[in-house]
Amino acid sequence: MNQQPLIGKTLDELKEIVKDLSLPSFTAKQIADWLYVKNVSTIDEMTNLSLSTREKLGQEYAVGKTDYLQKQTSRDGTVKYLFPTSNGKSIEAVYIPDKERATLCISTQVGCKMNCMFCMTGKQGFSGQLSSSEIINQILSLPEKNELTNIVVMGMGEPMDNTKELFKVLEIITAGYGFAWSPKRITVSTVGLIPGLRSFLDESNCHLAISLHSPYPEERLRLMPVEKAYPTTKVLELIKQYDFAHQRRVSFEYILFGGLNDSLRHAKDLANLLESIPCRVNLIKYHAIPGIDLPATNIEMMEPFRDYLSSKGIISTIRTSRGEDILAACGMLSSKK
User: Fold this and answer.
1) φ, ψ dihedrals at 46, nearest 5°
2) Which of 13, 16, 92, 116 is catalytic?
3) pLDDT digits 0-9 by tens, 243-256
4) Has 330 been annotated as catalytic?
């Protein structure tokens, strides 16, 4: 029997399930508690459900958690997990412990359609959307789940190209029936797909990260084909319609390539581009990927770039590379064997 997974279902979806099975309506909240608070692995563990209820539920459904296939541990403590997907593929998630913080980077697609020049996931191509079950499984099946302080949706895939499933997951993480996390503990990254981005800004209070990488449209287009369909100017026009001066935060990801986008001229024009947006800029070292001829910059170029942005009132930090030795750093995720 091909049982459907319960994890990844919102409370409203669980209510529909118990209604269809002619179970008491309060059963939905009990199931949610077992799935997302107590983190059970089987329906039999849901001991405040009657035996007949568990049997009826188990005929069509299973908890649906799936263990990881492989793990790799970096010398810096970062751990990369390979999870299977329902279409016979696999995806990666990365656990990043750092003093009092413990962040999990999760994926939303098998591969990616965006084909950014500097990204191994993009070079892998696209093999399918992840369901809310497969996305939430990366959290629930993580051995370090109870250590987590933050989640970043920055793994494989473009989240704004899979918003239906993404929004279910964000609801489960932040809702009282789920993990009951503050939205401030979650950051969702995008290259700037405007339809999905607009929905996200309207429906979620989670933090936002925009992949930018150049203040110049022609230069960004060479790095990121999405610039043609959704130009930076249009993305920024949309961002300016929302409030980022208080709880919700927007940051811009900027990978520095040596001699390409790391000059002081770039820093000045980037500051001009972002001057009216309360934001921060994360400067990222380029992590070389096979077959792509892009030069990395060095710290001697990154620090003046950061300092210039800071002098213009833009909070700017140089992100520490984590997990590079196991291909777990920014832009290096790929489930190709």
Assistant:
1) -80, 75
2) 92
3) 998 889 999 999 99
4) yes
Given the residues 116, 119, 279, 330, select the one marked as catalytic. 330
- DSSP letter at 82 equals E
Instruction: For the full predicted model, state whether its pTM sits above 0.85.
Output: yes
The conformation of residue 184, written as its DSSP 8-state character, comes to G
Q: Rounded CA gap, 71 and 80, in Å?
A: 5
Query: 79-84 and 90-98 as β-strands: parallel, antiparallel, unpaired?
Result: antiparallel
Q: Which residues pair with 256 in a beta bridge?
A: 285
In angstroms, how far apart are the furthest CA atoms of the chain?
Answer: 70
Sheet of strand 315-318, all strands in order from the earlier edge strand to the far edge: 70-73, 79-84, 90-98, 101-105, 150-153, 186-190, 207-211, 250-256, 280-285, 315-318
Collapsing DSSP to helix, strand or coil, 309 comes out as helix
> What is the pLDDT, as a whole number, of residue 41?
97
Question: Do the strands 126-129 and 207-211 form a parallel or antiparallel pair, or are they unpaired?
Answer: unpaired
Token pair 């010398």 is found at 75
Q: Is 92 among the residues known to form the active site?
A: yes
Q: What tokens appear for 107 in the block? A: 């994926």
